[in-house]
Amino acid sequence: xxxxxxxxxxxxxxxxxxxxxxxxxxxxxxxxxxxxxxxxxxxxxxxxxxxxxxxxxxxxxxxxxxxxxxxxxxxxxxxxxxxxxxxxxxxxx
Length: 93
Prior knowledge:
mainly alpha, Arc Repressor Mutant, subunit A, three-stranded antiparallel beta sheet, 3 strands
């Protein structure tokens, strides 16, 4: 099973792979490799390699011939949500 997709996993990827991930994340739907080739300015072999390595890191997913970015799970986002919500007030005993 691939590792959990999180910001730390993305941050350790080389710049080119981060660019591919960010491009995938901006697309509304899963996209075929053929269509992705037109989205990125890099050789086909490098794009294939980047997608494979993102998949291995748990940052991208290939389903039925289409690629999509895996949403990042970050503790930072979770803690922001907790801080933004007010805790219910409890009467003091």
